[in-house]
Write a structure and sequence with these properties.
- Helices cover 59% and strands 7% of the residues.
- By secondary structure, it is mainly alpha-helical.
- A two-stranded antiparallel sheet has the order 1-2.
- The longest helix has 39 residues.
- The chain starts with 6 loop residues before the first helix and ends with a strand.
Amino acid sequence: MPQFNNRDEWEASIKRELVNLTEPQVERLMKLLGDPPSGANVPESFWNDLGADLTATLQPALLSVYIEGAQQLLTTVPKVLRVDWHLVNEPAAAWAQQWSGFLVDGITATSQDKLQNYVSSFFRNEGTTVDALRGQIGGLFGPVRAELIATTEVTRAAAQGDIGIVNEIEAANPRIMMVPFWDTSMDEWVCDICGPRHGNARGKGWTEPPPAHVRCRCGLRWEPQPRGRR
């Protein structure tokens, strides 16, 4: 099984916070779009404010998942390989800040593009109603998208937490290298992308850590080996 515990709790928490933040934006957007709707009526400040709120929600959550993932991995390695825990905090904060910024930029850019497409489609297709437009916008800010983001990003942050502590372990123990193996749940939900990777070390069917795709819930299993072993 993937190493990261408390996954379900973290996914549910992040999803809930995202839904609470974004669902009210639907009616705000409908009012801003006007009648007839126009994307030009939505000021840049709307997206800037939304981005700031998303960052305030996601950055601390991803930081916490990173640190929790690193802590969990550290308990599984031999005590002789333990490292100073304080060394993990700085790279954890740096990663959470950088990635959350990149993630939020992507979320808002996608939302802007899709909103413009929905408004254009409203005028192209006769019979399209304002309620139908509201429903499309609701898909941008509803629970389905929130769950997609939460699941994918918990996987990413946990894997990055692993990598962060592994970097410190290897730095403190230069004769040891930590070898990652792809880990799936091996149940009926495992996809065709991740299933063949299960149990494989890096370089054997994969190079980049999870997530391998949207909603990926895989993890990494690590084994210490003497450096230079083949």
